[in-house]
Amino acid sequence: MTDAWIVSIAFAAVLVVAGLACLLLMRNLIKLFIGIEVVAKGVSLILLSSGWARDNVLVAQSLVVTFIVVEVCLVATALALIINITRKTKSLDVRKLARLKG
Amino acid sequence: MVLHIALLAGLVLFSALAILARDLIKSAISLAVSSLLLGIIFFRMGAPYAGVFEISVVAGLITVLFILTIALTKTEGDVRESKLARIVFPLAFVVFALVDALVMKGLLARIPMLQSAAPPGTFSDVLWKERTLDLVGQIAVILAGVFAVLALFRKRDHHD
Known about the structure:
The structure holds two protein chains of two kinds. Chain A is mostly helical. Chain A has one domain (2-99): Orthogonal Bundle (Helix Hairpins), CATH 1.10.287. Chain A contains three helices and no strands. By secondary structure, chain B is mainly α. Chain B folds into two domains: 1-75 and 84-110; 121-154. The radius of gyration of chain B is 21 Å and the shape is flat. Chain B has six helices and no strands. Classes of the chains: A mainly alpha, B mainly alpha. At the A-B interface, helix 1, helix 2 and helix 3 of A face helix 1, helix 2, helix 3, helix 4 and helix 5 of B.
């Protein structure tokens, strides 16, 4: 039991760092958002395995459920924003945003 | 334990694939597969509600939203990613995974067994009685999301 939750947290750390690296390196807006989703997966895995470490999954589970619902709202709003940005700049490139005129 | 590690490795692998794949549809589907694996891990940790939410909402709804967005923005052409990203990302990923594995292996024997807390009841007890304020906040967030999407897609006024 002790080993299993440490292993989970190790893998979750890899997920969070991979998502952050994606946010730093990629240019496509949808790819950037996929990076945010990967970070969110890592965070929910950390939340649940920290609850699992103390044999008290219930509180962690209710937090994860709340987190997932908030994540869906975030995704819906951000994808709507991406569609609007793409209509305005005619491109998915994040660098084009720096050249926006009013 | 072996199955647990295999599921976690699959989760990390498909997430990396989602970031690295050139085709956006392929990366959306890899993200869905990694959510499915995460849901199975939640089930195995003894959190069935979180697993159900992860599989139905994240693997289902968010993938549909992603594919819809990709379809709506497809005509705008492909974005060229920098060549640096293609080289640096896998390198950074592997290096961090190795460092992480070494650090965690060093920590494995040193962390004392945590005291286990007494289970406070059922999931619905915890969700509705202990986390009531969270639920109010959650409703506020959902409403904010709805209004944000409505505001982003509203039609322009004629005199605008």
